[in-house]
Specification:
The complex is a heterodimer of chains A (248) and B (253).
Chain A: H1 2-19, H2 26-67, H3 76-115, H4 118-125, H5 129-165, H6 172-180, H7 185-211, H8 217-247
Helix pairs in contact in A: 1-5, 2-3, 2-5, 3-5, 3-6, 3-7, 3-8, 5-6, 5-7, 7-8
Chain B: E1 2-11, E2 14-24, E3 29-33, H1 40-47, E4 55-60, E5 63-64, H2 70-77, E6 80-83, H3 95-106, H4 111-124, H5 140-152, E7 158-162, H6 170-187, E8 190-195, H7 198-204, E9 207-212, E10 215-220, H8 222-227, H9 231-237, H10 241-252
Parallel strand pairs in B: 3-8, 3-9, 6-7, 7-8
Antiparallel strand pairs in B: 1-2, 1-4, 4-5, 9-10
Helix pairs in contact in B: 3-4, 3-5, 4-5, 5-6, 6-7
The chains are: A mainly alpha (248), B alpha/beta (253).
Amino acid sequence: MLFNFFYHFGRYLKMMSTALTRPEKVRMYYKETTRQMIDIGIGSLIIVGLIAIFIGAVTAIQFSYQLDGTLVPRWYIGYIVRDSTIIELAPTITCLVLAGKVGSNIAAEIGGMRQKEHIDAMEIMGVNTANFLIMPKIIAALMVIPMLVAIGAFISVIGGYAATVFTGLLSDAEYIQGVRSFFVEKNVAMMFVKALVFAFILTSVSAYQGYHVRGGSIELGQASTNAVVYSDILILLSDYILAVFFTQ
Amino acid sequence: MIRATHISKSFGDKAVLNDVSTEFYPGKTNLIIGRSGTGKTVLLKLLVGLLNPTEGNVYYGDADFFRLNKKEKRQIRMKVGMLFQSSALFDSMSVEENIRFPLDMFTNDTAKEKNKRVDYCLERVNLTGVNQRYPSEISGGMQKRVGIARAIVLDPEYLFCDEPNSGLDPKTAILIDELIRSITLEKNITTVINTHDMNSVMEIGENIILLHQGQIVWRGNKDEVLETDHEILLDFIFASPFLQRLRAAALNK
């Protein structure tokens, strides 16, 4: 098992060292990167928005239930929703969902190209395929996913507002007071760092799974599943490491 | 010229090629023939550098391909065109974009020059009016021709074709053979074709090697094929009962 881990880790590093080199034709890469930004960004906006609104709403309702009958002021709910969203829920849940949507898509796209000999065709032409196929996806993800996370965090806070204010659990003023209290800028920085790290993990791990796929449709399906599973595990692991790093 | 010397290739314990040495000449259609599973595709992939040999060397001119650095390999690869068995056209791109792809990647030509070159290549393979169509919207024969157009768009010195006639009807297969042959002569290209189509062997086989169990067991040209009494080659050529009956009838006369 340890040998297997080092084998894949070594192969991943080798692929990334080829992928992250200077592009030969910047124009071609620019075109591909913008296409990926639209795919990842616009294509994921609805699912991220939907998840975010429910995360905010559920967090607000849960805390409202837990704080009921305690001495903690009720306006704290706005503060809790804001911080839990910014620090943890928006970057982590959004990226776990994106690992499922974008990650599996990347693995299937690159894996399909491998199986249909598209990658071989490019190799023979002299194209650095790891660089051409993977780098635009990573750059697009690094640019777009932090934006999606920020939008997700904003929508979550609105979701919390809708769930508490519209149902009469809190007044408008109470919720807004909570949202505006004890704001720490560092938490926003933490959110963006997490978003960047998770974006890199989910694109590069998924690309690795697709790039090295062998066999037929069953192997392609497995690669797609592995892309999601390994991305999720690594996102959660790095989430822990970043949490320790930022809170010490 | 391409020269393969003492090429062996194993996958784990399984030896696929064993001490294969041969030469492929410019201006000729060089054919690799043999039954399925004899290592034809592996040899072709070794020649283009998609696989590394367990032993042996491949020379493009005087350059030992597997000893070159990445940059030097890339220089050689830019002189190589390849037609894949499946055509390997990028299905998210139109016919025109597929052919233009190598130009976009490796040249600084203007859009006008690129379009002119694309049109020339499409005309060269007798395909016009399909520029904006996608690979899924054209027939298998057309896909092969687009594949050839893409392979020759950078004026290659070496052209590799992996089973160019597979999945095509006999008439279209003949057209593809003629096209490859005429391009080879016109540009003095070193063309290597991997096939088990007997029509191709008899029509365009100028330098033929027969692979059997990972080794070259016969070499010659299309005229020598007719005169040979090599058992493995005869077994390969007259594989079908129909051809065996024809041969028996001819011998009886």
